[in-house]
């Protein structure tokens, strides 16, 4: 009985696989799909009857259409044999016996007999495996990140450690499809009908990426806020989706080698919220007030505050309140000092006795006459 089944399967599958196939993108794919198998289109508008071909054999002469924004990976017995990055229609050609077809110019008797014998030895199924997979070359959206507790980093602008709970999303791009498939995609996704999606909650590989991004957030914030070209401003992060994405991508690369080992890169980020801890919020208030009151604006604000204080003291405490205000302002240069620079003190008047003594010495030396001395004396004494 097993022999009959093997013969039936070998002959039936071999005859079905003689037909050329038309491979395309499966229907109903999510926009976040990253890797999926090309599927043969057995029927179209009621025409076509090639629905019994082997799922792991691509017949010579079959056509595969690569749409815009996708690449095509070809596999032979589990090994990547080719990659196409340009959109267009391509024809499958293989030296493998199972791909030969009487409709592709590979002869009539030879493909039929040899394939039947080879398949009979494997219980009626082909003894090789061929596959074509589409890989997205677009930015893949809606990859979420978030922290359940505060993360801390050293902030260059605030010159201290700050902390925050944050959440947002990023776009991901496959920059090296071969590295991505070889080093990261689990074998379970390299099967017909399977779709590798970074946003799939049941995808353990995607969950690992989420954890690595969360682990890289603190270094990414530190890289961004300590970069002088960004102005060291923490408030710019939410306005600079590409700049922070670069910092996050650099932090992920340093910690987990996404680009060099997995062929992945973060392109853009969107930070939905940053909730700073209590200490950081107080510090930000102080820094913002200092920024707002710097220079002439701060002097004007201080004058207004002192004036308001004088008015309030006069209304509620009378002269005693004004005296208190005067003592307080006197310690910092007085009220007038808030309105204009303090003029330099005038030099002290010269002692008249010293002045006359100096004039007498000049008279004795013959430097001045008696009349000159008398005039200086009268002036010094106010006569």
Key descriptive features of the protein:
alpha+beta; four-stranded mixed β-sheet; 13 strands
Describe this protein's structure.
The protein is of the alpha+beta class and 383 residues long. The protein contains 11 helices and 13 strands. It has helices at residues 2-16, 109-121, 177-183, 204-225, 241-256, 258-262, 278-292, 296-330, 336-339, 352-364, 370-380, and strands at 22-24, 33-37, 39-40, 63-66, 70-76, 79-84, 88-91, 130-136, 140-146, 151-155, 160-174, 195-197, 264-276. The strands form 3 sheets. The chain has a 5-stranded antiparallel sheet with strand order 6-5-8-2-12, with no helix packed on it. It has a 4-stranded mixed sheet with strand order 3-1-4-7, with no helix packed on it. Strands 9, 10, 11 and 13 form a 4-stranded antiparallel sheet that branches. Strand 5 and strand 6 form a beta hairpin. The radius of gyration is 43 Å and the shape is rod-shaped.
State the share of residues found in helices, binned by percent.
40-55%
Number of strands: 13
Radius of gyration: 43 Å
Strand-residue fraction? 15-25%
Structural class: alpha+beta
- Calculate the terminal CA-CA distance, rounded to whole Å: 150 Å
Record the strand order, biggest sheet. 6-5-8-2-12
Overall form: rod-shaped
- Uncertain stretches: 1-19, 43-48, 96-109, 112-127, 327-332, 334-339
| SSE succession | HEEEEEEEHEEEEHEHHHEHHHHH
The whole-number mean of residue pLDDT values reads 74
What's the number of helices? 11
Largest sheet: 5 strands, antiparallel
Protein name: SPFH domain-containing protein
Organism: Lysobacter hankyongensis
Pfam families: Band_7_1 (PF13421)
Domain SPFH: 55-186
């Amino acid at each position: 009985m097993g022999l009959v089944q093997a013969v039936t399967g070998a002959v039936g599958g071999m005859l079905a696989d003689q037909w050329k196939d038309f491979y395309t993108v499966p229907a109903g794919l999510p926009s976040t799909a990253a890797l999926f198998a090309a599927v043969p289109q057995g029927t179209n508008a009621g025409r076509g009857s090639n629905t019994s071909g082997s799922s792991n054999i691509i017949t010579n002469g079959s056509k595969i259409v690569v749409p815009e924004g996708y690449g095509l990976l070809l596999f032979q017995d589990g090994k990547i044999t080719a990659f196409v990055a340009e959109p267009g229609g391509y024809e499958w050609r293989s030296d493998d016996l199972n791909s030969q077809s009487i409709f592709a110019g590979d002869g009539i008797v030879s493909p039929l007999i040899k394939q039947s014998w080879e398949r009979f030895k494997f219980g009626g199924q082909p003894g090789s495996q061929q596959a074509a997979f589409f890989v997205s070359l677009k930015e893949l959206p809606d990859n979420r990140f978030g922290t359940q507790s505060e993360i801390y980093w050293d902030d260059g602008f605030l010159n201290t450690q700050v902390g925050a709970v944050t959440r947002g999303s990023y776009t991901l791009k496959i920059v090296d499809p071969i590295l991505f498939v070889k080093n990261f995609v689990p074998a379970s996704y390299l099967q017909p009908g399977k779709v590798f999606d970074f946003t799939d909650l049941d995808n353990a590989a995607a969950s690992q990426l989420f954890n690595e991004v969360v682990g890289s957030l603190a270094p990414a914030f530190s890289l961004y806020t300590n970069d002088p070209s960004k102005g060291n401003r923490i408030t710019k992060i939410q306005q600079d989706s590409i700049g922070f994405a670069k910092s996050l991508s650099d932090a992920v690369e340093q910690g987990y080698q996404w680009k060099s080992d997995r062929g992945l890169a973060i392109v853009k980020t969107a930070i939905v919220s940053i909730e700073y801890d209590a200490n950081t919020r107080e510090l930000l208030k102080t820094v913002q007030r200092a920024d707002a009151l710097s220079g002439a604006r701060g002097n004007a604000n201080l004058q207004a505050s002192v004036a308001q204080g004088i008015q309030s003291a006069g209304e509620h405490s009378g002269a005693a309140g004004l005296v208190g205000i005067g003592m307080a302002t006197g310690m910092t240069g007085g009220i007038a000092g808030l309105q204009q620079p303090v003029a330099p003190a005038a030099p002290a008047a010269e002692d008249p006795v010293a002045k006359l003594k100096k004039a007498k010495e000049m008279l004795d030396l013959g430097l001045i006459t008696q009349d000159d001395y008398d005039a200086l004396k009268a002036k010094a004494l106010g006569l």
